[in-house]
User: Fold this.
Amino acid sequence: MKAIIAATLLGVIMMFTGLFVKDKKQVVSVAIIAFLALLGITVWEVAEASATAPAMLFNNMLRIDSYALWFNMMMAGCTFLYVLLMGKDVMRVGNHVAEYFALILFILCGIFLLTGYNNLLMLFLGIEIMSIPQYILAGADRRNLKSNEASLKYFLMGAFTTGLLLMGITLLYGATGSFYITDFTFLRTESLNPLALAGILFILVSFAFKVSAVPVHMWTPDVYDGSPTAFTAFMSTIVKAGAFVGFLRLFHIAFGSLSEHWMMIVALITAATLLVGNVTAVFQQSVKRMLAYSSIAQAGFMLFAIAAVNASAWQGMIIYGVAYSLATIGMFSVLIKLKDYTYDGFNGLAKKQPALAFFTTIFLLSLAGIPLTGGFMAKYFVLNAAVQQGDMLWLVIFALLMAAISVYYYFRVIIAMYFKQGEAEMAVEVNSSDKILLGITCALVILLGAAPHLFLGSI
Amino acid sequence: MNAYELIFWLLTVMAISCALGVILSRNPVSSVLFLIATFFAVSGHYILMNAQFLAIVNIIVYAGAIMVLFLFVIMLMNLNADTEPQKNRLVQLAGVVSGGILFLVILAALKSSTNNMLEQTSTDIGLIKNLGKTLFTKFVLPFEIASVLFLSAMIGAVVLGKKGEEGPQTPKGA
Assistant:
């Protein structure tokens, strides 16, 4: 609860900073302090929380357990790293720098609600608080037509799926007379109300949209490609992980006992997401667009945690969320420094910026899931959860096949950097603080691969 | 059939036929007018359920404010049949087929449902006094948290809509 209040208040403070501080660089410094404060508060909350009983707040509207607190801390940490790495790039997007950071803080408030909701009303508010600032951030570069298109497209489709979510919530309420997710566990397969089943289906579709799963992924490439790169990095990583935890909570806590009804649908969505994401990514010419498709493919792996209803899935979700976020934020912060976003733009980067090329290689290896990086452990955890669940061996084998395909398009960047001749042109100067921060991100990715249990705490 | 049921069916027929009018009419202005009529019919249902506050708000906010705004936008854009985008036959067919399949699936799911929608026991829940009480006791957190949502929408309006200072091209103070 402290984190939710802090994110909101810091967002408001950030907003007023824009009024009083005119220098953009100072605004970024204030933002860094704000995000550090938020990280501190989430750490404080983790430290003081009792491990046994989750806190039930406001007539059981929120149920904040140690998992939620731990996940909040991880996300606040990733966001802090993101602001450190990309703060200068956010500054270049437009004139409303303070407002952009305020919106990012509000998104975090939405994510904190999604990790702790116990009532469908809070789920709806969390999803909306997370989505609406994203529509704005997507269109922040007003002079760019693609950014405008991204914003409008995202808004229209997002509003439509929010309608589906509400429809699902209504049907569930009609069937059970309750908004509390813990009340749905009494839904038994024998006496299942068809209204509840239809409601679960509607909610499944709207969540699939929010995490960009196939067949409702069509917005992803356009939105991620059109948005300013600094915001794509945030939208495709931390927000996606937050939406996934909301998804996980609902389908495991509330509908876990009904898993036989929706497990097959989720498994098919997973297979389709893996197939479409990976195969389409192969044919992309722009690295930014490739990363958009790769985010669909990675969502496919995260869907394993939804499909497998067991404790390993919850662990896998944290590990996957953090590993994917770290590597993708790192990748985007390198990409944004280049002038040309195509594969050719990376030609000869290793000669010009050996450190940058090395860090990029580590991030790409992690995304591909090569051992000793965080991505490998993440894939191991979610696939392990699916194996424990049983009945899903075909899906696991299929996922491994798809991971092999993903190696192709990630390695194309590495090959361009190391083996192709060319002059990789930089859009902005790379200074030593950038390199140090990228090095820290890299170290975290490797640490996650070597000792994943450090990132699980007491979960 | 008593008066209550008579009004119920009247409003229902009106709501459904006006809703069909919204999507079937070619002229966008008449679509909006049909939508306003739909809102009035739905508000009538709210009054039947003893939810006066909801009914009034529905009329003031949706039929009054939002729909008038829609009407203005449509009139300013000057839409007519010529500006309507030409849709591919194949796409139309695909839309009809997939929509029909969804309809069938939901119909099949709900067919076996034997009127087990929960009945609302208390009938005066929609009165302003009771609504205010619930809003500030049981639902106080969602009520307050919604302000974050509106605040971010307001920031969005400023960020996306504010004029001038469009970056390096625009000369400052000129």
